[in-house]
Specification:
The chain is an alpha+beta fold. It is built from eight helices and twelve strands. The strands form three sheets. It has a five-stranded antiparallel β-sheet with strand order 10-9-8-11-12. Strand 1, helix 1 and strand 2 form a beta-alpha-beta unit. Helix 5 runs antiparallel to helix 6.
Length: about 250
Amino acid sequence: MIIRTNPELKKRYDELKAGDCFIGLLSFKNVKHRVCVDLLERGVKLFPSALSQTLSRSKVAQAVSLRQWMIPHTLIITRRFDLMLAINTYGQHGIGPVVSKEDHLHCGFGVHRWDNMEAVYNQACLNSILYPFVVQPFVENYTDVRVILAGKYVEAYTRKNEHNFRMNLSVGGTSEQYKPDKDQLRFCDNVMERGKFPYAHIDLLVTAEGHSYLSEIALNGGMKGASIEREELDALKKGILEKMALS
């Protein structure tokens, strides 16, 4: 049995058995991760994968599974003790300014720059920051690149904002087409393979020295700087999922 909509999934939820498939993003509000566990334990296949859906929704989850591709010394903060360890770690490596990322906020609204980890610690202890969150060293000079991959379709563009370190186009940035090299495409392929993404919107942070790091990955994302229309891209994505399910 192949189910393609959330209403149908909810209606036939108890009928599902091993080998059945659901195509689409789960829409069970506030209990998605519990539903994922239940379906996986019953042998129901999800397209996109349960892992990619989990990672797409959570910056913290990405930092757990994909940290090897992120800026060195990217850390996950779940409690005060983690903050104390982060202060020590960043102090040992001479890291000053840092960036924190709130778990579920998008479009740059959950990204904050701090002069050092002590400032993060002070605000977190005053409950100004919600746990869990991600901290990373602040990179001064870099190029922000959005890469869209769906099957054989590949497109990339830069995002730039002269007046804000947040490069997102939704907060006033401008875009320009970008041609990723073979190493960057291989980098993206490796990230997608690890996260079991059938397609992806990947944000790369490319340093002035030419090193590429993963900033964020999602199944869907903004397309303000893309040349492809969303309807066309959605059709490509749907085709990929149908092919995976039927195989």
